[in-house]
Fold this sequence. Notes:
Blueprint: H1 2-25, H2 28-33, H3 42-67, H4 73-95, H5 104-127, H6 129-137
Helix pairs in contact: 1-3, 1-5, 3-4, 4-5, 5-6
Amino acid sequence: MQRLGFVLKAKIALTVVAWCVPLLFFPADLFVRLGFPSPTPEVFVRLLGMAYLALVLGYGLGLRQSQRGVYPAQAVWVGILSNGGACTLLVLHAAQGAWSGWGLLAQAFMWASLVGTGAITAGLVVFGPCRAITDRTAPAGRSPGA
């Protein structure tokens, strides 16, 4: 469960630093200066930041469960859907060149978001449901991977 805890910690940090803080607190003109299109209407950007913050709460509660030795199934599945869905959308938009005309920093951020959401999804799947399955099928008294 330590590896799952590491994935949840990484997810919390990435979400707060890369998405919550910018979407909730950056002035709209800063997005433009960083090479992004102008976020209009601004209220939707702020609402998205708040939704990400709510996800952070869920991941934090899941992290606390995992630290207590309890498998945080709900947090893991929410994370898989959220990050897997985001990664899928980013891949589709990347294939269409959606951010190819943006500034270099904004493009780098979008590519990093694609990689980050993909890595978090993979980590949650591998150390979440896949690990839970192997733990259930392990012989009594023997831990998988031991």
